[in-house]
Write a structure and sequence with these properties.
Oligomer: heterotrimer
CATH topology of the domain at 1-77 and 157-164 and 192-235 in chain B: Rossmann fold
Largest sheet of chain B: 6 strands, mixed
CATH topology of the largest domain in chain C: Rossmann fold
Largest interface: A-C, 60 and 57 residues
Number of helices of chain C: 15
Number of strands of chain B: 10
Number of domains of chain C: 2
Distance between the termini of chain C: 67 Å
Strand order of the largest sheet of chain C: 2-3-1-4-5-6
Radius of gyration of chain B: 17 Å
CATH architecture of the domain at 1-77 and 157-164 and 192-235 in chain B: 3-Layer(aba) Sandwich
Number of strands of chain C: 13
Structural class of chain B: alpha/beta
Helix content of chain B: 25-40%
Distance between the termini of chain B: 37 Å
Largest sheet of chain C: 6 strands, mixed
């Protein structure tokens, strides 16, 4: 039950309860803001820049995870491999398209690349859902979360090894999407590729938000996540919505993979790190909370960057983890909450 | 409009319904009465497609519902208000209503339905931007009925509208159903509030232990000894 | 539920089969000798494993899979970049596949775990490239036991890496390079045995030459965001940034971000950038001016190897992975040949005897390699090979357009060091 709900339900008790439920969130956001401001003052604006660029990408991958968990109750441990799908399709498209269009249209190649990667990711994800999770939905009702967890781990192993069988272990990467020299903002060099990544992240996240908020499809996705029986009664084809949800989630990961090709070349194990960070983000935010995942993505990125700068690179993952432990102790359902429940337990 | 023939159903190994027959004609308000655990809600679930019958047949507008999932049944013109309401608690009243009209793509029709629901339940119009999860019990019930109406159903299934409501609220929900019925909507109602329901209904079935034990026009049932003894505490 | 479990089981089975694929092979022939060949065939540096496998295959093909009347069958021992997997893979190769000797390995941490297995089964293992002191310490702690890890394929980084400091100090002294911020350096590296071992060796050497250390930073092996680290070094005004990582994506990201962040006048020493042949495809022009220490494919035989490797396996070999793996496998085969000539049968006892009597004493050396002139061990150096001119040596190189040119030591240099702008 969310804090707001509690507060409105029990008007008189609300003040106290509101404060006790909300304070870790407010505290975390305040600490984050403080870190951003102090960090920037002491180390320069790169702290914010880096937090934003990295955060946007973690947000993309994590939002997909959160979406699939929220709507389908699947803890997806194959999300990293959709990142790989994106890296590979990005590499194949860009290295083929880029030499063919030159001159004034050169800027279009990266855009075509990431759009194709998005589509390929959605296609692979959608197909996988129809072939595997669609079948499981029809047959398995017990232990759904555990079963799908095992299956996604299996999918991950199969995809990694399948990739290695077909494409081998070579690093398929590019030096950069854009050859122009880095721009300088307040003395910080920022490669055009990273500006591009930030823009892609911003557009994709806004797009996702608009889709979920205003579109008929997005409303149906939220409906399925909130009450499957209610969605069925309203004439919504749940299975179709779930396939689309999985496709969107995979597409987002693939989009992130293609966008970051300049930093993460395609190779069999490229997805492991993004998967690991994305799960961290999702656990911090609260499983299944898409908006929370976006915010948490930025928080984690900012903490990683400032930890790395002020304390040392080897502590980069330690400090965000400590933060998570503290937050989970105070709010077991994550910063922005939402309890874990099985699909069929409604 | 609706024919249920010799339906058996249940959950897992537990059989709840034993050869239930019932029918609803166009424009009727029919009630299913009975004690707790008699299988009333199970019957509605079967009709709405949320539960598969083990045997027997259900026909709606002369079409067999065998093998159809609930979303397809809903699109055939069956509105279903379940016992637990199944509202989208994290969405606004307005969004819940819009989702009720998910299958209707015509904006104009959707707007008309919305006006109709707001006219029927002015409280919902006041609560339009509020999250469904923050509504009171009565408002939730209105929203669930409103959401079902948004799909322009030919038949409305309502499971226990009086459940958990104060008498005053029950009355206003019943009044709304009565008005819908008078406007020509066919309604199949499950209730434990026997006196109120029989006042309003055209016909009724009494379900006990998963089988129909009594059926007939509501007026006549009011008079029967069984009803008076068991359900009205008279005599 | 039942059918669901079947599905899960099916997926799991397919997955396991795919994983297992790497280590299957067929038996045959009357007298067969099974040679274990280690490498990171799966896991984060599987690319290096692929180079190992390709190079070892070419070396085996060169002798037609035959030593005398023995048919040599390779058994691929996948260390998977994880010590526990490495030791269980070796255990399995010895116990169920029956290898009589092992050859090659990549990570130091895996080597430490594999040493125990080799010692327990008394199977000699040669030329593991896990290089750090820990391997040497373990070897020397109980040579009767750990002598089965008979010889390393890569010396302690400290003994090998000092030329970086020598080179930069020499450039600064001769005026070829004026350090932007005086004789200052910062160290960086992956947070592993390897990273710490190499940087601490560099640290000692730089310090002994009178340079000042400003900072030292270590990061996770798969880190690809080095902006914080580089900005930190930038704000500390460092002239030389020296460090290492064995993961190509990590390394190429650092090299590119070094250019992006912009540290004018600073030199980047990126030890190991050339570990994968195709690094230039990842870094592009960002690798220009970067200093590394890599053996080069210099001889005609080496160039022949490169073109064969490319046409057979479709990727660029690197001198330090594929090149050395090729030579060391060749040396392994020579050890087998010598054992057969001397004793008439390839038992693990005979092989180990030859290692003790001839390899450790410098009698048995290998001079038909494509990277080094001679691979040699002596009682003083074991388990490391002899380092020095004419023996095992890595020149200091500087990249330009993806090609390394030797800039140090002066007697073998092919071009002058180019100071950064």
């Amino acid at each position: 039950m969310s804090a707001v709900k509690q507060a409105r339900r029990h008007g008189r008790r609300s003040r106290l309860e509101f404060a006790s439920m909300r304070s870790p969130v407010v505290l975390t956001l305040a600490v984050t803001a403080a870190v951003a401001i102090v960090g920037t003052a002491r180390a320069g604006p790169f702290i914010i820049v880096n937090g934003l660029v990295t955060g946007a990408i973690w947000a993309l991958v994590a939002a997909g995870l959160a979406l699939v968990f929220g709507v389908m109750n699947i803890p997806n441990f194959a999300q990293g491999e959709f990142f790989l799908v994106g890296s590979l399709s990005g590499y194949l498209v860009f290295t083929n398209v880029s030499p063919r269009i030159g001159g004034g249209l050169a800027w279009a190649a990266p855009i075509i690349t990431i759009l194709v990667a998005l589509l390929v990711g959605m296609l692979v994800g959608g197909l996988l859902d129809v072939v595997i999770f669609g079948q499981m939905r029809r047959r398995i009702r017990e232990q759904w979360v555990m079963n799908t967890f095992v299956v996604t781990v299996g999918i991950s192993v199969v995809m990694i090894n399948g990739y290695q069988l077909i494409w081998g272990t070579d690093y398929r990467g590019i030096p950069a999407y854009f050859t122009a020299p880095p721009i300088h903002v307040l003395g910080v060099g920022i490669a055009i590729d990273r500006v591009f990544a930030l823009a892609v992240g911003a557009v994709a996240i806004s797009g996702l938000w608009a889709l979920l908020r205003f579109a008929r499809l997005g409303r149906a996705i939220r409906a399925v996540s909130q009450d499957e029986a209610g969605a069925l009664m309203s004439g919504i084809d749940i299975s179709r919505i779930q396939t689309l949800t999985f496709a969107i989630s995979s597409g987002l990961a693939a989009l992130a993979g293609a966008t970051l090709l300049f930093n993460f070349p395609a190779f069999p194990y490229v997805g492991i790190k993004p998967l690991y960070v994305a799960w961290t983000v999702v656990i911090l935010a609260g499983l299944g909370n898409v908006g929370g995942a976006v915010v948490a993505g930025f928080i984690i990125a900012l903490f990683q960057t400032s930890t790395s700068y002020f304390i040392g690179s080897q502590w980069e993952d330690v400090v965000p983890f400590a933060l998570i432990v503290v937050i989970l102790a105070l709010r077991p359902n994550g910063l922005f909450g939402r309890g874990v429940r099985g699909v069929w337990e409604q | 409009m609706l024919e249920v023939e010799a339906v058996d159903s249940g959950y897992g190994f537990l059989q709840v319904l034993h050869g239930v027959n019932l029918r609803v004609e166009e424009g009727e308000l029919v009630a299913i009465l009975g004690p707790n655990g008699a299988g009333k809600s199970t019957m509605l679930k079967c009709i709405a497609g949320m539960l598969r019958p083990w045997r027997g047949e259900i026909r709606f507008r002369n079409r067999s519902l065998a093998g159809l999932k609930a979303n397809r049944v809903s699109r055939l013109g069956m509105g279903y208000v379940s016992e637990t309401l199944n509202l989208f608690t994290g969405m606004s009243v307005y969004e819940n209503l819009l989702l009720g009209a998910y299958a209707i793509t015509d904006h104009e029709i959707r707007r008309q339905s919305l006006d109709f629901v707001f006219d029927l339940f002015p409280r919902l119009a006041e609560r339009r931007p509020q999250l469904a999860g923050t509504l009171s019990g009565g408002e939730r019930k209105m929203l669930a009925i409103g959401r079902a109406l948004m799909g322009r159903p030919a038949l409305l299934l309502v499971d226990e509208p009086s459940l958990g409501l104060a008498p005053l609220l029950t009355q206003s929900v019943f009044a709304a159903l009565k008005r819908l019925s008078q406007d020509g909507l066919t309604i199949l109602l499950v209730e434990q509030n026997v006196p109120g329901t029989l006042e309003m209904a055209d016909r009724a079935y009494v379900l006990e232990q998963g089988a129909v034990v009594l059926e007939g026009p509501a007026r006549r049932l009011q008079e029967t000894a069984h009803i008076q003894e068991v359900y009205m505490g008279l005599r | 539920m039942k059918r669901g479990s079947t599905l899960v089981a099916l997926v799991a089975t397919v997955a396991l089969t795919l994983v297992a694929c790497g280590s299957s092979n067929a038996a045959g022939g009357s007298k067969e000798f099974k040679l274990g060949i280690g490498g990171p065939y799966t896991g984060p540096v599987a690319k290096t494993g692929a180079e190992f496998k390709g190079a070892a295959t070419l070396a085996l093909e060169k002798v037609n899979y035959k030593i005398g009347d023995y048919k040599i069958t390779p058994v691929w021992v996948d260390e998977a970049s994880k010590p526990d997997k490495a030791s269980s893979a070796l255990e399995e190769a010895i116990v169920s596949k029956g290898i009589g000797m092992g050859c090659l390995n990549w990570h130091s941490s895996d080597a430490v775990a594999m040493m125990d297995v080799a010692a327990r089964h008394k199977v000699p293992y040669f030329f593991g490239m896990g290089a750090t002191e820990i391997v040497n310490q373990k070897f020397k702690s109980d040579q009767a036991k750990y002598g089965y890890w008979a010889a390393k394929g890569w010396p302690i980084p400290g003994n090998l890496a000092t030329p970086y400091a020598d080179a930069l100090d020499a450039f600064a002294t001769s005026g070829a390079y004026t350090p932007a911020n005086g004789k200052t350096y910062a160290l960086w590296g992956e947070d592993t045995d390897w990273g710490h071992s190499l940087t601490s060796a560099l640290d000692k050497r730089f310090a002994s030459l009178g340079w000042t250390k400003k900072d030292a930073q270590f990061f996770a092996i798969d880190q690809t965001d080095h902006h914080a680290l580089l900005n930190r070094f930038k704000n500390e005004h460092v002239s030389v940034l020296a460090g290492t990582s064995t993961a190509p994506e990590t390394m190429s990201a650092l090299v590119k971000q070094f250019k992006e962040v912009g540290l004018p006048g600073s030199v980047l020493v990126a030890d190991g950038l050339g570990y994968v042949g195709e690094f230039y495809k990842l870094t592009g022009a960002a690798s220009d001016g970067v200093v590394d220490m890599q053996p080069l494919f210099a001889t005609d035989a080496a160039k022949q190897f490169v073109s064969t490797f490319k046409s057979r396996f479709g990727s660029d070999p690197s001198p330090s992975a594929a090149g050395l793996a090729y030579d060391w496998t060749g040396f392994c085969l020579k050890v087998l040949q010598r054992t057969l000539d001397k004793t008439g049968s390839l038992t693990k006892e005979n092989i180990y005897k030859v290692a003790q009597d001839e390899l450790w004493t410098g009698k048995l050396t290998y001079t038909s390699g494509i990277i080094m002139h001679e691979y040699k061990f002596t009682q003083d150096t074991i388990p490391d090979p002899v380092i020095g001119k004419g023996e095992y040596i890595f020149p200091v190189i500087q990249y330009s357009g993806g090609q390394g040119q030797i800039v140090f030591p002066p007697d073998v240099k092919t071009t002058d060091f180019k100071a950064p702008a």
